[in-house]
Specification:
The chain contains 10 helices and no strands. By secondary structure, it is mostly helical.
Length: about 230
């Protein structure tokens, strides 16, 4: 159908764009902002999720996890500037720093999952995904804004899966592991996770369980705490 016919069919009027708006649309600036905002919102939830999940097995955050919070703030400022002015500085450098923070946090989650699931495919899967995530995160800053935002979103999805793998590892750990002495909030978290992601057998991480675990990380009502547990 021709554009003119579609306008006539739905009684639409052509959308008039200013020069700067047309340029931003052609550059993919609006696409980049949409994906960047989505990545930031999901990162905020990941910060909360990482703190709660880490508390199940490790009392202190790693240096890599500590580095995530300042990169998140820097990316938030960059995106806020882009939302207020189409001529603002490129987003890719700040998104690249945030991607690096995600890479480190993902590796920390994978290391804990591998410790719980030593010798099992779950641990190997976590370490492999973490390595891929770290490599991808290093490429974000080199991309144009639209591709940087898209790659960052993929990195965020990987870290959601890594935290899901950590939860799968913790719930499958022997009763003698530290999770046996979990606090009441931890017990509530583990119960909610087990209800959302039924066990699939020792050391087995079917694709469906991984998707369910990542969805749990993405959608659970995490306590409002930073990586430092504040």
């Amino acid at each position: 159908m021709a554009t003119a016919d579609a306008f006539s069919l739905f009684s639409w009027e052509p959308l008039a764009l200013r020069t700067d708006e047309a340029g931003a649309l052609l550059r993919g600036a609006l696409f980049a902002l949409a994906y960047a905002v989505d990545a930031l919102l999901r990162t905020q939830r990941l910060v909360q999720a990482a703190a709660a999940i880490r508390s199940l097995s490790a009392p202190a955050e790693t240096a890599e996890e500590t580095a995530l919070q300042p990169t998140l703030h820097a990316a938030e400022q960059a995106v806020a500037g882009a939302l207020s002015s189409p001529e603002s500085a490129p987003l890719a450098p700040a998104l690249g720093q945030l991607g690096g923070g995600h890479g480190g946090a993902g590796q920390a989650a994978a290391a804990r999952a591998a410790q719980y699931a030593a010798g099992l495919r779950l641990g190997a899967a976590a370490l492999g995904l973490a390595a891929h995530t770290a490599t991808s995160s290093q490429l974000v800053a080199a991309e144009a804004d639209a591709y940087a935002a898209l790659r960052l979103r993929q990195v965020v999805e990987n870290v959601e899966q890594l935290l899901g793998l950590e939860l799968l590892a913790v719930t499958g750990a022997p009763a003698s592991e530290p999770v046996a002495g979990a606090t009441r909030p931890s017990e509530t978290l583990l119960a909610a996770f087990r209800a959302a992601v039924p066990a699939g057998g020792p050391g087995v991480v079917p694709y469906l369980a991984l998707r369910q675990a990542a969805a749990f990380v993405r959608g659970h009502g995490w306590p409002a705490a930073g990586l430092g547990g504040a």
